[in-house]
UniProtKB/TrEMBL annotation:
Known cofactor(s): Zn(2+); Mn(2+); Fe(2+)
Name of protein: Fur family ferric uptake transcriptional regulator
Keyword entries, A-Z: Cytoplasm, DNA-binding, Iron, Metal-binding, Repressor, Transcription, Transcription regulation, Zinc
InterPro entries, per database record: FUR, Fur_C, WH-like_DNA-bd_sf, WH_DNA-bd_sf
GO molecular function: DNA-binding transcription factor activity; transcription cis-regulatory region binding; zinc ion binding
Annotated organism of origin: Nonomuraea endophytica
Binding site for Zn(2+): 79, 82, 119, 122
BP-aspect Gene Ontology terms: negative regulation of DNA-templated transcription; regulation of secondary metabolite biosynthetic process
Amino acid sequence: MTTRRDAVHDTLRRSEGFRSAQDVYAEMRQDGAKIGLTTVYRALQALADGGKVDVLRTDDGESVYRACATDDHHHHLVCRRCGRTVEVAGPAVERWAEAVGSEHGFTEITHTVEVFGTCAGCSA
Ligand SMILES: [Zn+2]
Ligand SMILES: [Zn+2]
Ligand SMILES: [Zn+2]
């Protein structure tokens, strides 16, 4: 499964902007990959859960994906109108998450933080 996930990740990395699972699936089939749509969906979901891809929900409820510019842990600032996504670091959030976790005796702390708003282009 890891190799298929990598193949999906690579396909997404070669794409500009956000692509749906259908788009990724069609492109992989075109390249001769023997992969099912369900597998593509699952791989994209796993990549999104692992913070390797950005995922957005379009107005008609479809999820679209984009490979993150970095594999390092980061956060997203997302425009809720046009879907523009900026990758941001949050040192204060990292410290706070660690502190609040250890305060309660938790280890292996992880977190997901997405910040939503209206981008400069949309509010102009
Ligand atoms: Zn990202
Ligand atoms: Zn916008
Ligand atoms: Zn973080």
